[in-house]
Amino acid sequence: MDSSKLDSLLEDLSSVHKLPRLLAAADDVDKIIELLSTAREHVAEKLDPHTTSLTMTKLQNPIKTAFEKVNDDLKAASASHKKVGKSLDKYFPLKPLPTENDAMANQVPLINRAIAMHLLREGQFSVAEAFIQEAQADSPHERSDDFDHPMDESVEDAGAARSTTPMLSNDDDYDLSSLHSKELQEKFAEMYTILQELKARNLLPAIEWARANSAELEARGSNLEFELSKLQFVWLFKGPGVNRLPDDQHNGWAGALAYARQHFDRFQERHVREIQQLASAMVFAPNLPESPYKSIFSIEGAFGDVAASFTREFCSLLGLSAESPLYLAVTAGALALPQLMKYMLATRAKGTEWTTAHELPFETPLPESMLYHSIFVCPVSKEQTTDANPPMVIPCGHMLARETLQKLCKGTRFKCPYCPSEGQLKDARQIIL
Amino acid sequence: MVDEASKINHDNHLLLDQPCLRLPYELLRKNFRSAHFQFEKESTFVKTLLKETANGSLNGKTSPQDVVKNLDQMLAKMRGLKRKLTTYAEEENRLYRQIDARVAHLHELASVSTVDDVKYEAWSRQRLDRLLVDYMLRHGYNSSAISLADDKAMRDLVDIDTFVVMSKIRKSLEGGSVQEALAWCSENKKELRRMQSSLEFMLRSQQFIEMIRANSQPEIEAINYARKFIQPFHDTYPEEVKQLSGLLAYRPGTEPATYASLYSASRWQKLADKFVEEYLKLLGLPMVPLLHIALSSGLSALKTPACHSARSQGQGGVAIKNKSSSAAAAAQNGSNDTTTEPSLSSQPRQHHGTASLTTRVCPICSTELNALARNVRYAHHGKSRLLEHDLMLLPNGRVYGKARLDEYAAKSGLESGRVKDLVTGEVFDAAEMRKVFVT
């Protein structure tokens, strides 16, 4: 594999700290000061014209040399800078970023809101507090950043799929005061406390939270409460040698059994099989590692897993994604930026404009991990399905975009482009993917 | 399976990070220019005086007492130079330290080859923090920026000083004072001239306008000021200079639009904006926050038609804020939960019983970004990309992967042969499902 420019750049720059610096010039000014002081002493001592003129004449050359030395130091320092500049130009040539038509310029309140929520969800409470305060103080006299190049509103509006209401009328819905940052902060503080406890291998606060929200979790098909309780059972089962909890009747084999009796009843209906497994495993208690149940009782990674599920469920109940959307968007932005810049360079050269108002005119491939919705591209029209042109299933089970289907139709009948079957338009079903 | 899109092209991945290395370099040069200027100034002075003194003492015109005086003067200059050079050298050290820190930061990326590497996430998070600090600083949210930078121990990765200076001058202009900006202009005279900047002229004009505004009659003071500071711009800005001289006749509150606009208070904001523009340009910094660039590109890349769809709100969309429908959804889920604060519950309700199982809430659909992403374009896809396989159509028109339907049915404790819609919660006979094919 050939090494990238980045490697060369970093190699070049990693040695810059050895290059000559300005400090040498500052140090060498001392020599001038020394020469001048000595001369002054000589002259002041005698105050006699002869000595004075002799001293002053003799001073000329050394001072000149000393100045030259400082000048050389400066040249060397400047050469160092130029070396840095050369490496940058060679391996990291400046590519101007697309800053014209900044679509985000008039979205400051919404960006601020996204940042505030990001800081809160990351547990950066004090930064969030300072930020909300400063952003709010800033908002009353909103600066019109786009004074000189007003945004092309019509183009932007066309991009909104269903924006019947102009943005401004919803403004108070979107500013920071509607963020209820106190409540959000309390929520996230609760999340962090519980996560902290999980890290310290204390499952009880998480179980308590899951129980309090069990109706909603169940509706989501989440087994978080049971997973946590199961882990608590296993954790107790391991006994004081592993869990370091007090060695009493609430711990170990007996403690686990007592815990199961007390709490597993509510899971009987939905998780009967798993509970049976746990019970059977107890039979193997003395020799668990060799038993078929050893995987249930291996807790390696189990705490990390429940912590991740807990975070996901906690955020979901707040209507938020488990990972910071701001983080994802900025990461995706960095991944897609090369395509955007390539496209802008090409179109600027050709003088053409962006044509499709709703859709980007070029592909910005993102990794699988950044795919959140299934994308259906009609195999005939090659268009993505939208509200206006939704996906349809025809009787043979093939999917097409509605506009494609309408074009395929001869009267009310059509033939599937992918298999020999024919269908009636009325039998095609609009679907939600 | 190799996911091509998850590979990192190192030479292409650092577009947003150009200023991160470029700025310290620009500052090194700027710092050097100041140091060199001081040296030239003081050394010329000392050299000249030294020669004069030597000659004077040789031909008897300068007494030894005066020679001592002159030497003292030279010493003072050189001690001053020493002090200044030391300060510049310290600044240089700081900048080299920044370069080192930034090189180390980029080194971390160089060792990562795919975005799925956990090390990439750590790096990318740090990049986000850098972009956030940049954004905060550019908006003058300085305490937030400093607090975040300190929290993450990354002062050397961000450019607090540069932007704090900028926002101080910007605020002074917004507050109606030109002094700070003029001082900055004279510090950067050469570069501004090379850029053909009109900033100094604009500042001088404003000062002149304020002088006239402050006095009821055209004062000799304002006229003198104009002679000294406005007249030199006559060749470059003849029209504007003519207009300004007209102010001596047209007092504040005057009718003609051209003159009225000169007295307008909005000129201060324009000046502030102009200053910011020149300041950024001089340092080679992008005109808009890096976060804006990242978001414009990222929101589009992630956005799909479903994210603001009226129809598939079940995919986790919070696009529709209809309280009655969300209440209905909640009731449908059998959720009587009243512990959530009303203000919080109004938005996320749709998610209950929706993004079930392990589907992840889409970042564009999430509350944080949904409104922000409304007006950006959605990503272009040349071919279908499906999250699930073995698609099944339920009688209500919704399509899910078979595996997920099975899992949800099991988790919901349904009897066999029944399936449950992951969004609406409706229960159907498995026999009513139909296979769907995507070609």
Automatic annotation (TrEMBL), chain A:
Zn-finger segments (RING-Gid-type)? 378-419
Tell me which UniProt keywords the record has, alphabetically. Cytoplasm, Metal-binding, Zinc, Zinc-finger
MF terms per GO, please? ubiquitin protein ligase activity; zinc ion binding
**Where found, per UniProt?**
Cytoplasm
Ranges where the record places region Disordered? 136-174
Q: Where is the RING-Gid-type domain?
A: 378-419
UniProt-listed SUPFAM superfamilies? RING/U-box
GO CC, one annotated term: nucleus
InterPro entries, per the entry: CRA_dom, CTLH/CRA, CTLH_C, Fyv10_fam, LisH, Rmd5_dRing, ZF_RING_GID, Znf-RING_euk
Q: Which GO terms describe its biological process?
A: proteasome-mediated ubiquitin-dependent protein catabolic process
Compositional bias segments (type: Basic and acidic residues): 139-152
Q: Which residues form the CTLH domain?
A: 187-234
Name any one Pfam family assigned in the record. Answer: zf-RING_UBOX
Claim: Zinc-finger is one of the keywords in the record: yes
According to its UniProt entry, the function of this protein is described as: Involved in the proteasome-dependent degradation of fructose-1,6-bisphosphatase.
The entry assigns this protein to a family as follows: Belongs to the RMD5/GID2 family.
This one is known as GID complex catalytic subunit 2
Q: Which organism is it from?
A: Canariomyces notabilis
UniProtKB/TrEMBL annotation, chain B:
Q: Domain named RING-Gid-type: which ranges?
A: 362-424
What InterPro entries does this protein's entry cite?
CRA_dom, CTLH/CRA, CTLH_C, Fyv10_fam, LisH, ZF_RING_GID
Q: Where is the composition biased (Polar residues)?
A: 332-355
Spell out the residue ranges making up region: Disordered.
313-355
Protein keywords: Cytoplasm, Metal-binding, Zinc, Zinc-finger
Where found in the cell? Cytoplasm
**Molecular function terms in GO for this entry?**
ubiquitin protein ligase activity; zinc ion binding
Q: Where does the UniProt annotation place the signal sequence?
A: none
Q: Which GO biological-process labels does this protein carry?
A: proteasome-mediated ubiquitin-dependent protein catabolic process
- Similarity remark: Belongs to the FYV10 family.
Function of the molecule: Involved in the proteasome-dependent degradation of fructose-1,6-bisphosphatase.
Provide the protein name.
Protein FYV10
- Lineage, opening ranks: Eukaryota, Fungi, Dikarya, Ascomycota, Pezizomycotina
